[in-house]
Write a structure and sequence with these properties.
This protein is an alpha+beta fold and about 375 residues long. It contains nine helices and 22 strands. It has two domains: about 230 residues, 3-Layer(aba) Sandwich (Rossmann fold), CATH 3.40.50.300; about 120 residues, OB fold (Dihydrolipoamide Acetyltransferase, E2P) (Beta Barrel). It starts with a strand and ends in an 8-residue tail after the last strand.
């Protein structure tokens, strides 16, 4: 039976303190987002048992891994944790197949069965053709696929992902993100993802925790946290417009209209998806815009926020918050005021269509 994770921990070192309490349901992916030094990787190390918490409790279902009051601290190798980090860390002297079979073999599985398990997971991550290669014959993206297969082949009770896309180049990262999305939504173990990239949270996570200076300052469903940030850091990293919908042939459906864009990762028609675009790509108009192909939204203005050389214009359409960055001169020319109705327009070429984790289309 698959169990959920419950954690409430404190960890102190001379110049830093981590305090975090949260739960992760079976099959749920929770992303931990925060700047460098926020305590994200420290939190994962405490969950895995690599760092000893000063106070707290960590349990997976009825299995208690840590309880400082009762003196319980199960060692890492007995917690059944699977870890995928920035670097693949494959064994250089083993083939890909042997790397993936290592976990089952270490758990006492017979050689033939361990090979079957390894072959299954290599197939799941689309890396069967790499089975006989050595790690030094793999690209960065291929190595991460193999590392994911190795983590899952060990049948972990908890999966920890520590910025697994951070070391990949701009060509490999989207493919790996899409693969993770497909694999994670088919599994039923709790997963904690540490990332600094808001796209990882959008595509992969059901819920989002924002960690700042060792404290959780926001948490909730990913889309809600990013659409209505309460903390200045969250608002800054959200930075992107996210419009939820359902994948259609030319983009996503949003209400009774279609938002066109380029598909960043493979999508099935009818799958929950989101159109993502930067506020700097949005133009503001008093009348419905015409001309080159573009997406247009009639929004009600909510706020005008000076940001250095630009003004961030915030508007709402169908309970979805959108932002546009325009010059102060444009704000004056358009005579923009809160509660006005105006058009936000963005070219289809500036819109990326991503799968949306969590299964709710928001339409």
């Amino acid at each position: 039976m698959v169990s959920g994770l419950r954690a409430d921990v404190e960890f102190h070192r001379r110049d830093f303190a981590l305090r975090a309490g949260f739960e992760v349901a079976p099959g749920e992916v929770v992303a931990v987002l925060g700047p460098n030094g926020a305590g994200k990787s420290t939190l994962l190390s405490v969950l895995a048992g690599q760092l000893a918490a000063d106070r707290g409790r960590v349990a997976l279902g009825d299995a208690v891994w840590l309880d400082t009051e009762r003196g319980i601290n199960v060692p890492t190798h007995r917690r059944g944790v699977g870890l995928l980090a920035q670097n693949a860390l494959l064994f250089p002297n083993l083939t890909v197949l042997e790397n993936v079979a290592f976990g089952p073999r270490a758990a006492g599985v017979r050689r033939a069965r361990a090979r079957e398990i390894a072959e299954h997971w290599l197939s799941e991550v689309d890396a069967t053709m790499l089975a006989e290669r050595r790690p030094d014959q793999l690209s960065g993206g291929q190595a991460q696929r193999v590392a994911l297969a190795r983590a899952l082949a060990a049948d972990p009770r908890l999966l920890l992902l520590d910025e697994p896309l951070a070391a990949l180049d701009v060509d490999a990262a989207p493919a790996m993100r899409g693969l993770l999305h497909q694999v994670l939504r088919r599994q039923d173990r709790p997963t904690v993802l540490v990332t600094h990239d808001v796209l990882d949270a959008i595509v992969l996570a059901d819920r989002l925790l924002v960690l700042l200076d060792g404290r959780i300052v926001e948490q909730g469903p990913t889309r809600e946290v990013l659409a209505r940030p309460k903390d200045a850091f969250t608002a800054r990293v959200a930075g992107l417009n996210l419009v939820p919908g359902v994948a259609v042939a030319d983009g996503i459906s949003f209400g009774d209209s279609t938002i066109s864009g380029r598909t960043a990762e493979p999508l099935d028609l009818g799958e929950a998806a989101a159109a993502v675009f930067a506020p700097s790509t949005v133009a503001v108009h008093r009348e419905h815009p015409h001309g080159s192909p573009r997406n247009a939204f009639l929004v009600r203005l909510a706020a005008l926020e000076p940001r250095g050389d630009v003004v961030r214009v915030r508007g709402v359409v169908r309970d979805c918050s959108l932002a546009a960055d325009v010059t102060p001169a444009a704000v004056a020319d358009l005579d923009l005021r809160p509660d006005d109705e105006v058009w936000f327009a963005v070219k289809a070429a500036e819109v990326a269509i991503h799968p949306l984790s969590g299964g709710s289309s928001g339409t």
